[in-house]
Amino acid sequence: MFRGNGELESNPTWTPVVALALTDGEGRWLMHKRPAGKHHGGLWEFPGGKVESGETPANALVREIAEELGIAIDSTDLAPATFAQEEEGAREKPIVILLYTCARWKGDPQALEGGEVDWFTPAEVRELDKPPLDVALAASLFAKMPD
After folding, report:
1. For residue 122, which of 97, 104, 141 has the smallest C-alpha distance?
2. CB count, 10 Å around CB of 140?
3. pTM of the model
4. Contacts of 80 (CB under 8 A, 6+ apart)
5. Is 15-142 assigned to CATH 3.90.79.10?
6. Residue 7: CA atoms inside 13 Å, Cβ hemisphere, count?
7. What does each C-alpha distance from 105 to 13, 52, 77, 96, 123 come to in angstroms?
8. Tens of pLDDT along 43-91?
């Protein structure tokens, strides 16, 4: 849980994770294929990562995207889109992913931590092999969008 000052409790009961639905403005969305050998290796996901203690979700996403994709995004360009969560009991501290959309960035997205990145239409994203929470995120994000 978050404290009133925006910081994570020292002993949270869940793991906050942030993810980015980056759009090119032409109806395509960036997805990251996790490297083989990692958890969910070979599956496509919305890029992002864990929120560290002392970070807001938006600031964590700015940091994660710089580390993972080598691009710069501004927290003021992020719009909350949806979230997905693991079932209680799935692990000691179930993951909750907060998905943000963004259409502005600087740089050329690259898979700096391995795997690959590519652009897909909503219909193509739906067909990709994804981890369960990314399946839920994509379904919610694209529910009202045309293919």
Report:
1. 141
2. 14
3. 0.89
4. 98, 99, 100
5. yes
6. 6
7. 33, 22, 9, 25, 24
8. 999 999 999 999 999 999 999 999 999 999 999 999 999 999 998 777 7
CB-CB contact of 100 with 21 (8 Å): yes
**Of 36, 32, 100, 91, nearest in space to 62 by CA:** 100
The first and second tokens of residue 82, run together, are 């949806």
Distance CA 6, CA 140 (A): 26
* Sheet architecture: strand order including 95-102: 48-50, 15-22, 95-102, 79-85
Q: Are 24 and 57 in contact (CB under 8 A)?
A: no
pLDDT tens digits, one per residue of 95-122? 999 999 999 999 999 999 989 999 999 9
| Sequence-separated (6 or more) residues with CB below 8 Å from residue 1 | 8, 9, 12, 13, 14
